[in-house]
Design brief:
This protein has 248 residues and is an alpha/beta fold. It contains 6 helices and 7 strands, in the order H-E-H-E-H-E-H-E-E-E-H-E-H.
Length: 248
């Protein structure tokens, strides 16, 4: 009987201990879960702080984008204004060019012989040629001018020269130029081809009594006029082409 009471008491103690263990476990488990919840809440707070910072950055960047768009709009307005100014300046340039053309012809140089620099003017303008050199010349024996003609020809410039046939002698530049490949012809007029004219680039005319000879440069009284005029050059070019076409 005492043994039964003792076993029942033991069982009761065991049950109480079991209940206490479950309660303690629950308390421990609850404490662990509470710790995890606190940690997660801390992480959430950090994330919310980061999100707030990013939103602030976003707002700042949106402000910068808006400012840049305003700057872009201002620059576009400036470009439009400058393009309008460009058109206006181009119109002014065209107007000035028209006025310049209306003021033609322009006298660029006047030279007299003897020893007045006529030959150097001829060589100067031959050296400035860019497209064409067309010449009608009565007498041409001066080597220095012949060198200038060859220089123009060697640059690929269209060089054509008509000589007065009665003046083509062993001293003439005709043979030297022809052998170098320059296009040369003799005038076919049974009388004299008495021109002394060069048309350069369709706009510059060299004209006067000055033959391209040493005598004209050193001894004779001669004159040379250098004129810039597209209209006048066109008139002389027409004369040149007529004489060139029948030359041989």
């Amino acid at each position: 009987m005492n043994k039964g009471k003792k076993d029942g008491k033991t069982a009761s103690i065991t049950i109480v201990l079991l209940i206490i263990g479950i309660a303690v476990g629950s308390i421990i488990g609850y404490g662990a879960n509470a710790g995890q919840v606190g940690s997660l809440q801390t992480q959430i707070q950090k994330l919310e702080t980061q999100i707030a910072g990013l939103q602030a950055n976003k707002t700042q960047l949106q402000g910068q984008v808006s400012s840049l768009q305003d700057d872009k709009s201002k620059l576009q307005d400036q470009v439009t204004s400058l393009e309008s100014d460009k058109v206006g300046l181009q119109a002014q340039i065209a107007s000035l060019q028209n006025k310049t053309q209306q003021l033609e012809p322009v006298i660029l140089a006047v030279r007299f012989s003897p020893k007045g620099g006529a030959a150097s003017q001829v060589m100067y303008w031959l050296g400035r040629a860019n497209k064409s050199v067309h010449v009608l010349i009565y007498s041409f024996t001066l080597d220095s001018i012949g060198d200038a003609v060859l220089g123009a020809y060697q640059k690929g410039i269209d060089v054509k020269i008509v000589f007065e046939k009665t003046e083509v002698s062993k001293y003439s530049e005709y043979f030297r130029l022809a052998s170098a490949g320059v296009q040369v012809r003799n005038d076919s007029n049974p009388a004299l081809m008495h021109h002394k004219v060069a048309i350069i680039d369709g706009s510059i005319i060299l004209i006067g009594s000055f033959n391209w000879t040493n005598a004209a440069e050193e001894d004779n009284n001669e004159n040379l006029l250098v004129i810039r005029s597209s209209d006048l050059a066109s008139t002389f070019e027409h004369e040149f082409q007529m004489i060139w076409a029948v030359g041989r």
